[in-house]
TrEMBL record:
The middle region has homology to RecA with ATPase motifs including the RadA KNRFG motif, while the C-terminus is homologous to Lon protease. Belongs to the RecA family. RadA subfamily. It holds the Pfam family Lon_C. This is DNA repair protein RadA. It comes from Marinactinospora rubrisoli. A motif (RadA KNRFG motif) lies at residues 249-253.
Length: 459
C-alpha cells in the first residue's frame, strides 16, 4: 500500500515548517502563526496560458510606470516623485499620529484631477466627512465608503473607477469564505493579496493603512511588507506638532529620504524647512544648551540639545532623558568624568531635545557633551557655535559623514563657528570649521572661562 501523504504546518511569518502543530514558531518565535498547509501534491506543475508574451526589455512601455505628483511636496519627496499607477503603498504608524489626516489631505488634492475612492473600515462615513470639512477636503471627485468586506470594496471600485484607492485600514477588512477574524494573519494576507491584484490589473494607485504593534512593527504577517511596493512609516510624538514620514522600502525611489510635516488644527502642512522647530529663540545664550546638525535621510536638520546638571541630596541621583538615547547619555557622562575630570556623577542630570525630535545619530555626542559641561560650569557656549562629532570612550572625537553638507545648513541659518572632527573637505564660506581631536580640546575652545576658573581655584 502506498503511504499516505503527511500533513505539514508552516509559519506564516518566516516559512518555517514542522510535521505537527505548535503554538509558537521554532524559527522566529512568533505566537499563533503556524498553520496547516496540507499534504503535498505529487508531480510537477503543468504549464498554463500566459497573461502577456515576453518581450525584449527595450520594448517595454514605461509610460504607465511614471510617478504622478500627489500635490503634497513632502510626500512626493519621500516617494521619489509621486504615486505610481498600479503601485501599492503601505502606510504604518502609531494610533493618533495623523495617518488618516494625511491621507485625507492627499485624497482631496488628487481628486482635483481624477476620481479618488476612500474606503474606511474604522470610522463611519459621517465621521470622516466631518474631518474632511474641518480640513477643507470636500472635493467633488472624492468618493467615500464605509466597508469592512473586500468583496464590497471591489464593487465600489467597479462603480467609481478611481485613479487612487485608499483603504483605512487593511486590518479591518475581511475576505469572505476565508477562516480567521479580521486583522488575523490569514485574513490580512488574503485581503492584501486581493488588493494588490486589483491595483496591478487596473492600474490603480493604492494606499493601505497598517496598524503597528506595541514594539513599533507593522501588525500582520511580514509577507505583507514584501508584497507591497512602498512601505512608509509615519512617526511623531503626540505631544509635539512635528511628524516625520520615513521610507522603509521603495521600489520606485530612494529609501533614505524623509518628509517633515506639522500637524495643526486645520490639517497637516508640509515643512520644507523644519529646522526652526528644533531651535529655541532667545536673546542671550543660556548655559546647558548646544546646537548640532543631524542628518535624517538626505536632509540635514539643525537641532538643539539641552542639559541640566543640578546638585542633589538624594543618595541615588536622578537621570532623565527625552529625545535622546539614555544609554548614550550615561556613556558620555562617564567619559566626561573620566577624561575631562567633570565631577557630575553625584548630580542630577537631565537631557532633552527641543521640538520633540529624536536624535539617535552618534554625531550628536559632541554637542551633548558640551551641553553637559556648560551646565556643570554654569557657563554659556559662544553665540553662533554648532558642534558635531562622535565621542569615543577614550575621549577622542571621531569623524562623521556629510560634514560639508551639515556645515552648509548651519551657515544658511546664521551660525559662524563649528567644532568638528578632523575636517579635510573643502571649507564652507561664511562659517569657520575648527577641528578638534579629543573632548578636552573641544572643552578648552568652547568654554575657555571654565579653564581659567579651574586654574584660579587650583592656585
Amino acid at each position: 500500500m502506498a503511504k499516505a501523504a503527511k500533513t505539514t504546518f508552516r509559519c506564516a511569518e518566516c516559512g518555517w515548517t514542522t510535521l505537527k502543530w505548535v503554538g509558537r514558531c521554532g524559527e522566529c518565535q512568533a505566537w499563533g502563526t503556524v498553520e496547516e498547509v496540507g499534504a503535498a501534491a505529487p508531480g510537477g506543475i503543468a504549464p498554463a496560458k500566459v497573461s502577456s508574451p515576453a518581450r525584449p526589455i527595450a520594448e517595454i512601455d514605461v509610460e504607465t510606470a511614471h510617478a504622478v505628483p500627489s500635490g503634497l511636496d513632502e510626500l512626493d519627496r519621500v516617494l521619489g516623485g509621486g504615486l505610481v499607477p498600479g503601485g501599492v503603498l503601505l502606510l504604518a504608524g502609531e494610533p493618533g499620529v495623523g495617518k488618516s489626516t494625511l491621507l485625507l489631505e492627499v485624497a482631496a488634492l488628487c481628486a482635483d484631477s481624477a476620481p479618488v475612492l476612500y474606503v474606511t473600515g474604522e470610522e463611519s462615513a459621517g465621521q470622516v466627512r466631518l474631518r474632511a470639512e474641518r480640513l477643507g477636503a470636500l472635493a467633488p471627485k472624492l468618493y467615500l465608503a464605509a466597508e469592512t468586506s473586500i468583496a464590497s470594496l471591489i464593487s465600489h471600485v467597479d462603480d467609481v473607477a478611481p485613479r487612487l484607492l485608499i483603504v483605512d485600514s487593511v486590518q479591518t477588512m475581511s475576505a469572505p469564505d476565508v477562516p480567521g477574524v479580521p486583522g488575523g494573519v490569514t485574513q490580512v494576507r488574503e485581503v492584501a493579496g486581493a488588493l494588490i491584484r486589483l491595483a496591478k490589473e487596473r492600474g490603480i494607485a493604492t494606499v493601505l493603512v497598517g496598524h503597528v504593534t506595541k514594539d513599533g512593527s507593522i501588525a500582520g504577517p511580514r509577507m505583507l511588507e514584501h508584497l507591497v511596493d512602498v512601505v512608509l512609516q509615519f512617526e511623531g510624538d503626540r505631544h509635539s506638532r512635528l511628524r516625520m514620514l520615513r521610507s522603509v522600502k521603495n521600489r520606485y525611489g530612494p529609501t533614505d529620504e524623509i518628509g517633515c510635516f506639522e500637524l495643526t488644527d486645520s490639517g497637516i502642512i508640509g515643512l520644507p524647512d523644519p529646522s526652526g522647530l528644533f531651535l529655541t529663540r532667545r536673546n542671550e545664550p543660556v548655559p546647558g544648551t548646544c546646537v548640532t546638525v543631524t542628518v535624517e535621510g538626505r536632509r540635514p536638520l539643525i537641532a538643539e540639545v539641552q542639559a541640566l546638571v543640578a546638585p542633589t541630596a538624594l543618595p541615588q541621583p536622578r537621570r532623565a532623558t527625552s529625545g535622546l538615547d539614555h544609554a548614550r547619555v550615561a556613556m558620555l557622562m562617564a567619559v566626561l568624568e573620566r577624561r575631562a575630570q567633570l565631577k557630575i556623577g553625584a548630580s542630577d542630570v537631565y537631557a532633552s531635545t527641543v521640538g520633540g525630535v529624536r536624535l539617535q545619530e552618534p554625531s550628536v555626542d559632541l554637542a551633548l557633551a558640551l551641553a553637559l559641561a556648560s551646565s556643570h560650569a554654569d557657563l554659556a557656549l559662544p553665540r553662533g557655535l554648532v558642534a558635531l562629532g562622535e565621542v569615543g570612550l577614550a575621549g577622542d572625537v571621531r569623524a562623521v559623514s556629510g560634514v560639508q553638507r551639515r556645515l552648509i545648513e548651519a551657515q544658511r541659518l546664521g551660525f559662524t563657528t563649528a567644532l568638528v572632527p578632523e575636517y579635510s573637505e573643502e571649507p564652507v564660506e561664511g562659517i569657520e570649521a575648527v577641528g578638534v581631536a579629543d573632548l578636552g580640546e573641544a572643552l578648552r575652545i568652547a568654554l575657555p572661562a571654565r579653564r581659567r576658573q579651574r586654574g584660579t581655584r587650583d592656585d
